[in-house]
Amino acid sequence: KNAILYGEIDESDDGGLIFSADPDTLSKPLPNHYHAKTWRHVEVIDPAIRSIAGRLVCAKDPESGKWWVVRAQYIKGMKHDMHLVEQLAVMRSKEGFNFIQHVADDSAGFRGAAADYRIDPIIYKAPPSKRAKKGGKQFLINQARYYLDNEIIYIPSEFALLWDELFSYEWKENSEDGIKNSHRFHLLDCLMYFFDTLPPEDKQLEEVRTYHQELLDYNYYGVVPKDVMMRREQELNNQLKEKKKTYILVPNSPVYRDWE
């Protein structure tokens, strides 16, 4: 009740990233009509400093418009950034996926090495919300809960490591990012980065939502759908044209709270 009405963080004895969607529904198997060459794929990398990296590959079903996890794996034994870049290049050549986007944590070393790799140079996009100086991690977490609850993506049960991270994510007071043992959640971080870099058309939910539903979403998740934010931003700017001012609405900002 408090989470819905006041936006308080859910807590449980077992930890976990709290979401209301049924895990049995989210873990349905990949459809039989999946095709590596025709479905659009996104690769997400979370390069770490302890010789281990997380890799997530998601694919979009052209029929339903939903996304599916098709790879969730750890890569170990890297000695330097270029070593990881080379391992990923070998994986991609064997898989034959139709990649439309590559995403990676904002690690200058890895992203620079990937762009400079002469055999298969890749430009990795950084998750924009991760760069926020304050509240960036909290935004990513709430955003992930929001999209999981709305079944934007399905995670087949075979990806047990990712499901384990979803259920074992736990808050830790007075830590740098608020997460207990944050160094071991690379696959879940990849999933958060995937949500943060979704194309605009995938962020607009098909269901027409009432203002009441939007308000509940904002209080519970702290995330306002981009189409709602843009619409309200335009409405406000139209009202302020005479003053020749332009506002960019950011959740929790004074202007946004006044507008709400």
Overview of this protein structure:
The protein is of the alpha/beta class and 260 residues long. Helices cover 39% and strands 13% of the residues. The chain is built from 11 helices and 5 strands; from the N terminus they run H-H-E-E-E-H-E-H-H-E-H-H-H-H-H-H. The chain has helices spanning 2-6, 23-26, 81-95, 108-116, 136-149, 160-168, 186-196, 200-203, 211-221, 226-239, 254-259, and strands at 40-47, 52-60, 67-76, 99-104, 153-154. A 5-stranded mixed sheet has the order 4-1-2-3-5. Strand 2 and strand 3 form a beta hairpin. The longest helix is centred in the middle third of the chain and has 15 residues, at 81-95. The protein is globular and about 50 Å long.
Number of strands: 5
Give the end-to-end Cα distance, rounded to a whole number of Å: 21 Å
Give the CA-based shape.
globular
Order of helices and strands: HHEEEHEHHEHHHHHH
For this structure, the quaternary state is single chain
Which structural class do the helices and strands define? Answer: alpha/beta
User: What amount of the residues lies in strands?
Assistant: 5-15%
> How many strands, which pairing sense, and closed or not: the largest β-sheet?
5 strands, mixed
- The gyration radius over C-alpha positions equals 19 Å
Number of helices: 11
Poorly predicted tracts of residues: 1-15, 243-250, 252-260
